[in-house]
Each structure stands twice: as C-alpha cells, then as structure tokens.
Amino acid sequence: MEKKTLYTAIKPTGIITLGGFIGVGQSLQSMCEEYNSYICVADLHALTINPNPQELRENSYKLIAFYLALGLDPDKCTLYLQSQVHEHAEMSWVLNNFTMFGEASRMTQFKDYQAKMKELNVGIFTYPVLMAGDILLYDTEIVPVGLDQKQHVELCRDIATRFNHKMGETFLIPEPVLRKEGFKICGLQSPTKKMSKSDRADTGAIFLEDSPEEIMKKVKRAVTDSDNFVKYDVENKPGVSNLLTIYACMEKITIEEAEKHFENANYGTLKTEVANSIINGLKPVQDKYFAYLNDKEYLNTILEKGRKKASAKAQEKLKIVYEKLGLIR
Predict the structure, then answer these.
(1) By CB neighbour count within 10 A (0-12 exposed, 13-18 middle, 19+ buried), where does 184 fall?
(2) For 195, left (φ over 0), alpha (ψ -120 to 50), or beta?
(3) What whole-number distance in Å separates Cα of residue 207 and Cα of residue 32?
(4) If you ran DSSP here, which 8-state letter would residue 22 be given?
(5) How much is the mean pLDDT over the chain?
(6) What are 71-91's pLDDT values in tens digits?
(7) Left if phi > 0, otherwise alpha if psi is -120 to 50, otherwise beta: which for 206?
(8) Distance CA 295, CA 46 (A)
C-alpha cells in the first residue's frame, strides 16, 4: 500500500524550544516511518521579520541538525531548505490569485501582528498563501500542526478547492492533524502563552541548547500559584497544568497519570521532577545535535540531497499548474 504524503515545516527564527521538541520532535520520527514525508526549513517564511542574515543562516543549519538529531533518515524522508526550491515562491504567486483579500485578512495570526506592530510588510499578510503553496506542491495529504497554524491549513484547503473548481482537479485537499496532548507548551513565566523561541533571554522558555543547570533553574522559577496543590486545571491553575503537560509529554504518559503521580507532592517536588524529566529526555538529542552542528560540510550534503528530491516533485506539480493556467513553459 502506497504511503500518504506528509508535509511539515519550521521557521529558522530562533533556537528550538522544549515546546518545539514536544510538539514536533517527539512524533516526527514515527511519522516519517508511516508517511512519505517532506520536512522543510521554512527560511522564506522567516524573511517576514527581516532577520539578521548571519543568524538566519546559522538557525537554518541548527534546524537541520535538530532534525537529524531526532533520528530522521534523509534517505527515508525529504529534508530540505525552502529557499533552495524556487517553485515555492512561484506557486505562492499563482495562489495569491486564488485567495480572496477578505479571507486572508481574517487570519488570526495576521490580526495579532496587526494589533501589536506599527508597520506590517506584505509578506506577513501573504504568509498563509506561501504556506498553502508549500503544502500543495507535494500533493500533501497530512499536515501536522500546532493549534496556531490550523487556521492556515484550513485556508489552504479553501484555496485548493477554489483552484480545482475553476481550473479542474489539480490539488489534493490536505488534512491538518493536531497532537492530542501537549500541542501547546506554554512559557514557564507566562503559562497562558505559547513558549516562544524568538528571545534567547526569555527565562520562561527552555531551549534545546540549554544546559542541565539552566533547565533546572528555569523550571524552579516557573510560575505556579499559592495553593501548593498539584492538579490539572488549565483555567484556574495554568502554571501547574503546564508543568504537568510537560512532564506527561516527556515521560510519554497521560495527563491523568501525571496528575496521579504528583497527587501527594508539593510544588517543589513537582518542579524538580519536571526539570529532571526534561534534562534526561533532551540529553541524547542534545549530544547528537551539537555533533551535527559542528559538521557543516555534512549538513550541506544532506541539504543538497533534499533539494534534488524536493525539486523533482515540485517541478512536476508546478508544470501541471502552469499548463492549467495557460502559461507556456
């Protein structure tokens, strides 16, 4: 039986956090075994925030090293840089013409940026259209996403449906897949907001490059409440609930099992055990990550292999799209 196709991407806009490791890393290797997988470093998407060029370059390598450290086999999946496959940009322009201004304006992420930024570049507005192009280029059927990206996949489905209706059946309609538990790991200092990778100085975020001492210190300082009673209650006890979610994900148990484990514990015990669970869970990945990161020549060979594989599929799909539109190749 032929495998379904999966597509996923992360922007190289910072160092991978614990949230990224849990939300993506823990399930990605098994997904690559189950699906025909395209794993993208979305460096074109990163341009929307006008990153420092050297940091963008280094963060792109760090993402490749992270994927390899997770155990992804570049012979069994397609691991590549978005900017090295020019069909992504071309497909994005085509799909702009099948996207309604109103539906793009309703994207929650765009409205969030609009509320907190004085100036917005057009790239932020058209970001979801580029994402739709990323997905549709590869006849994607499965898109694993966090809760904040689910709306973008739904827009992608609408764009694909509209194109198919106007130009004839061309695109498969992808399905977003959310992680059932732990898909939103929150910051330790702001337990109602997603853990951010954009600020290395953020003491509420745990980064892949953090030492055991840094991890222990950050978790010990995590915001909880005055009850000193361990219970999973996101609305009334967001800090404690976040720590329980992290522990459950790192130990690969249910929230209920984590809650049972800590039913007679105080917050000091909770924080110590959560920190040790993170430290022990990250160590094997960290060791491989730093080894890969120190071998840029090897990383470049992996990128070239991925570029060739991704380009072959993307060229094939874009040719079909251009023919449907009457563009001469």
Answers:
(1) buried
(2) beta
(3) 24
(4) I
(5) 93
(6) 999 999 999 999 999 999 999
(7) beta
(8) 24
The token pair at 70 is: 């997770």
**d(Cα 264, Cα 120) in Å, to the nearest integer?**
50
Give the mean model confidence (pLDDT) for residues 214-228.
94
How many whole angstroms separate alpha carbon 305 and alpha carbon 84?
Answer: 11
Neighbours of 122 (CB within 10 A): 8
Distance separating alpha carbons of residues 70 and 257, to the nearest angstrom: 26
Which has the closest alpha carbon to 98: 42, 29, 167?
Answer: 167
CB neighbour list of residue 8: distance below 8 Å, 6 or more residues apart = 24, 28, 31, 37, 38, 39, 40, 143, 144, 145
Percentage helix, strand, coil, to 5, in the chain? Answer: 60, 10, 35
Q: Mind listing the pLDDT tens digit for each residue in 172-185?
A: 999 998 865 555 79
DSSP 237: B
CA end-to-end span of the chain: 34
- pLDDT at 268 (0 to 100): 96
- Token look-up 């109602």 returns 192
For residue 225, the tally of other CB atoms under 10 A from its CB is: 14
Rounded Cα distance between 42 and 63, Å, is 10
Give the E-state strand segments of the chain in sequence order. 5-10, 36-41, 78-81, 142-145, 175-178
Give the H or E element holding residue 18. Answer: helix 18-20
pLDDT at position 245: 94
Phi/psi of residue 168, nearest 5 degrees:
100, 160
Gap between the Cα atoms of 233 and 237, Å rounded:
5
Q: pTM for this structure? A: 0.89
- Residue 276: closest CA among 213, 191, 224, 186: 213
Structure tokens at 319: 């040719």
Q: Which residues, in sequence order, are CB contacts of 320 under 8 Å at separation 6+?
A: 170
Instruction: For residue 271, give the nearest of 307, 226, 218 by alpha carbon.
Output: 218
Residue with tokens 């075994």: 33
Backbone angles phi, psi at 277, to 5 degrees: -65, -40
